[in-house]
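Class prep. Sample record?

___
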Amino acid sequence: MQKTRFTVFYDSLNLVFFGFLKSSWKDKALNLLSVLFGYFLFANFITKFISEGKNELLMIPIIIIIFEIIIRLQPLRKSNFYLLWMLIDRIRIGAVYALILEAFKLGS
């Protein structure tokens, strides 16, 4: 197939939306375990601080600042730290999911 602008665009969209299907089983397993670990860790962490009732106004901004630092410190793909950063980023995604889910539970 020729490399036209449309095929390059189509391939890039395909990689963005379905790129996880092309990855190896090791990458899929690590990504899934990282997201689930982040959810489990922060769901328990948030529940503990909500039940204590102390410092919750201080902890949420600190958690948000830590999340922003993780996002801003993305290394290059060729770096040795990229795999570690990917795992930490997936843990962050699970933590955000736990935080949003806990907010919906408190709101209802």
Notes: The mean pLDDT is 84. DSSP finds four helices and no strands in the chain. Residues 22-107 form one domain. The two ends are 53 Å apart (CA to CA).
